[in-house]
Specification:
The complex is a heterodimer of chains A (112) and B (115). Chain A is mainly beta and 112 residues long. Chain A has strands at residues 3-6, 10-14, 19-21, 23-26, 32-38, 44-50, 56-58, 64-68, 73-78, 87-94, 100-102, 106-111. In chain A, the strands form three sheets. In chain A, strands 2, 5, 6, 10, 11 and 12 form a six-stranded mixed β-sheet that branches. A four-stranded antiparallel β-sheet of chain A has the order 3-9-8-7, with no helix packed on it. In chain A, strands 1-4 form a two-stranded antiparallel sheet. Chain A starts with a strand and ends with a strand. Helices cover 0% and strands 49% of the residues of chain B. In chain B, the strands form two sheets. In chain B, strands 2, 4, 5, 6, 9, 10 and 11 form a seven-stranded mixed β-sheet that branches. In chain B, strands 1-3-8-7 form a four-stranded antiparallel β-sheet, with no helix packed on it. Classes of the chains: A mainly beta (112), B mainly beta (115).
Chain lengths: 112, 115
């Protein structure tokens, strides 16, 4: 069955530290990849997406993600986190049709 | 506010009762999705509408669950004979057609508690 794995359920960082959140999916065909973020008390919102082309995609607020097809991965990165990045981050994959599969999420807490 | 709206935001019901939730998508979006999210998990796909047609439905959607989108605008999700395991956050999302059709905009969710 298709699945999405996020390796870290909780991450605690100090401000200015670098961030990398892992995401792997299980599907051998064409995929669309997403990272969504949910800030405390807010809706899920799109952070960035990959459909095709350059495997390094840039999103809002300085986030980027790299699609590595051979590793079935789409890791999220940010060189220097801020306290305002405290949120829950979800990796999601669309493999065909209209069904999107989400990972379990990673809760990031950034210490000021 | 022109985003996705959901009503009610919270619902507490007793086991065995029926509940209905409403979702109003972004007005120009013809695609609408329902998800269920439980604590510590990401959203799980339930069903998808394109206009008024329900085109995809998860096996998670048992016979007690039904969703409609009668005029291709708002949608309702009904759960009959609720069970404690139905307690979750029910999320609605919408998207437009075209290449960006897979970028979904989420509503605030309806939190259901079955006692």
């Amino acid at each position: 069955a298709q699945s999405v794995s996020q390796h870290n359920h909780h991450v605690i960082l100090s401000e200015a530290a670098s961030l990398e959140l892992g995401c792997n999916y299980s599907y051998g065909g064409t995929v669309n990849l997403f990272w969504y973020v949910q800030y405390p008390g807010q809706h899920l919102q799109l952070l960035l997406k990959y459909f095709s082309g350059d495997p390094l995609v840039k999103g809002i607020k300085g986030f980027e993600a790299e699609f590595i097809k051979s590793k079935f991965s789409f890791n999220l990165r940010k060189p220097s986190v801020q306290w305002s990045d405290t949120a829950e981050y979800f990796c999601a994959v669309r493999t065909g049709g209209f069904k999107t599969i989400f990972g379990a999420g990673t809760r990031l807490f950034v210490k000021a | 506010d022109t985003g996705v709206s959901q009503d009610p935001r919270h619902k507490i019901t007793k086991r065995g009762q029926n509940v209905t939730f409403r979702c109003d998508p972004i007005s120009e979006h013809n695609r609408l999705y329902w998800y269920r999210q439980t604590l510590g998990q990401g959203p799980e796909f339930l069903t998808y509408f394109q206009n008024e047609a329900q085109l995809e439905k998860s096996r998670l959607l048992s016979d007690r669950f039904s969703a409609e989108r009668p005029k291709g605008s708002f949608s309702t999700l009904e759960i009959q004979r609720t069970e404690q395991g139905d307690s979750a956050m029910y999320l609605c999302a919408s998207s437009s057609g075209g290449r960006e059709s897979h970028e979904q905009y989420f509503g605030p969710g309806t939190r259901l508690t079955v006692t």
